[in-house]
Each structure stands twice: as structure tokens, then as C-alpha cells.
């Protein structure tokens, strides 16, 4: 894992998006993520936005509540499958990395704990926890080369 920025506390504004939210087991979750990205990219109005992978609820032994979305300039209409949403404004514990996601998550969580930062969470449910793909997944197939912003909203 290579860290480019952070860990640090950053502030983000509200960011509108269109996304697809599903429940899936942890095992196979990244294949589901990749399929959802492909599905979103079929919409012409989502060709230029930042792609992210949001984890609403994490249960490594049970169901994962996940969402894949693309940030848009403004609120756009969705449909029965692709729905509008907002990555909420606030202060986030964040870092930018490439490589191993599990290690990056552990690094960020350990840092937040050591800094005494309270996360916006209730058990395994998070107010906002996501990975934003700063490298466009459509142009770089090697996931280990992606620059990823990992962020968890603070309480």
C-alpha cells in the first residue's frame, strides 16, 4: 500500500450523485461493485463524474449494504434502479492511497482512534463511508494502480 495524502481531517460539501444500492455478502462484493460500475457507465449523463463505492453497513460475516455511484454537478433524476443521493457535507477522516484496501482501512481506522476522533456510525452502520476512485476505472484496469480517496464522516 502506498499513501499519497493523509490520514487527515478534511471537509467536504454535499455532493449529489446517481447510484445503485444493493445488499450482498462480503465474499464476492468487489465483483458486484465492478458490475454495478459497468451498469452506471452505460448512462451518458454519468460519463464524466467521480465514481465511488459507499459502504452503508459492514458485516464481514453477513450482508453488506453497499452502493456504487457517480458524482454529478447537480441533482439528476433517477429511475427504479439508479437513484439520486447525496454524499453528505461534513468533516471526514480521509486518506488517499493505492494498493491494498484492507490495510488502508485499518490504517485510517487506527489513526482516527489514536486521534480520538468519533466516527459517524451506529454499530456496523455508517453515516457516510466511501472509497472514491480518483483514477478512472474505465481507463486503468489494474486496481492496484488506482488512486483512491478513503473517507469516513466524523460524528
From TrEMBL:
Pfam families: GyrI-like. Residues 5-155 form the AraC effector-binding domain. It comes from the Bacteria. SUPFAM superfamilies: Probable bacterial effector-binding domain. This is DNA gyrase inhibitor. It comes from Paractinoplanes durhamensis.
